[in-house]
Amino acid sequence: MKMNTLLAKVDHMSSSAASMVRDYAAFFKTKQGAFRGEKNTYSAVNGYDERPERNTQTTVQTTVQEKFDWFEDRYIPYLKDLFSIEATNAGDAYKVELIVDGISFGKLSAIELMRLRNVLTSKELNTMYENIPVRSDAKIYEECTDSQYDGREIFQTPILKSDERTTEKEEVILKDPNLGGDFKPNNYTPKTTIKSKTVKVAETTHQEFTGEWTQRKKAELLRRKSNLLNAVVIALKEVNEIEAKEANLNVDSLISYIHYGGPGKNVKVQ
After folding, report:
1. 245 located within any domain
2. Within a domain: residue 260?
3. Which of 42, 66, 67, 193 could form a disulfide with 54 if both were Cys (CB 3.0 to 4.6 A apart)?
4. What is the average pLDDT across 119-144?
5. Is residue 252 part of a domain?
6. Residue 269 forms part of a structural domain
């Protein structure tokens, strides 16, 4: 691909890439509910009324992994083209190998390293990573077995079963010790009391689902990004140890031309 074509391509892609990162950061920060789901069931017992409104389900809309799969499909080609431009601009410049955690990311020039540093320190990219949705460490999660989530990176809590109970009240006639047998005086009003008893009316279940990451997985990503940035800074120091060359541009003539219209000072054009 010719350089002019590549420049035009990257110029077109840069705005959409920046917009995508901003959208991701906002989505991660404000739409955490999209990564969560739950299922509730209600089963009446002993002839009590069923309550279909208590059988509810909220489906997990997306997962962090699914969001990153989509992100990578679009962001990686953009970065490849962006760094192809920098590699072309670097030409035969001195390069150093960038190695992090034993992984080589290639030999890069100062111009490529500075571009990479700018990418890694992008405010929008950092905001996106810092707002990756994470699930609570206070709950136990296991691999999801619900068939509707087959093939997706979704986890579930164990099913929480419980009995729903209610208190029923019944009026009971108290026994009068002053009366015997079936004899009741005229106009006799027996004393009564309210007897309460607790009865089971239904069996319920509750289960939660999530496509969020763990706190640890997010922390490991941020650690790796920090390690990479530190390595870039160190590599920049190394690549800049070479002797600087004089500028090819005649700056004196340039400024004189802008200010006075000629190669020397005080050469004024009438």
Report:
1. no
2. no
3. 42
4. 96
5. no
6. no
- 105, with CB counted inside 10 A (0-12, 13-18, 19+), is middle
Total structural domains within the chain = 1
pTM for this prediction: 0.80
Mind listing the pLDDT tens digit for each residue in 61-92?
A: 999 999 999 999 999 999 999 999 999 999 88
CA gap 215, 65 in Å, rounded: 14
pLDDT surpasses 70 at 266: no
Interatomic CA distance for residues 75 and 17, integer angstroms: 7
